[in-house]
Amino acid sequence: MKFKEWFSIKGVRTEIKNIHWLTKKELMYNSVVVLVFCFLFGVYFYGSDAIIALIMKALGMN
Fold first, then answer.
1. What is the 3-state secondary structure (H, E, C) of the chain?
2. Listed residue (26, 46, 48) closest to 38, CA to CA
3. CA quadruple 31, 33, 36, 40: dihedral positive or negative?
4. Tens of pLDDT along 21-40?
5. Under 8 Å between Cβ of 14 and 7
6. Does the structure show a pLDDT above 70 at 2?
7. For residue 38, what are the contacts with CB-CB under 8 A and spacing of at least 6?
8. Cα 14 from Cα 17, distance rounded (Å)
9. Which whole number is the average pLDDT over 4-19?
10. Could you say which of 11, 28, 37, 55 would form a disulfide bridge with 6 (CB–CB 3.0 to 4.6 Å)?
């Protein structure tokens, strides 16, 4: 498809037909995965910050 054709209404409709829309089940699964990873990263960064603060306090830098 040429560049000019892609920006026409016909080209847009053709591209929209190629989109894979998620089902409700796929959407829920992906949302849960994102939330779990956000939680895990939050715990990791909180723990890392706490350990670094402990080390700095032990060295008298805080």
1. CCHHHHCCHHHHHHHHHCCCCCCHHHHHHHHHHHHHHHHHHHHHHHHHHHHHHHHHHHCCCC
2. 46
3. negative
4. 999 999 999 999 999 999 99
5. no
6. no
7. none
8. 5
9. 82
10. 11
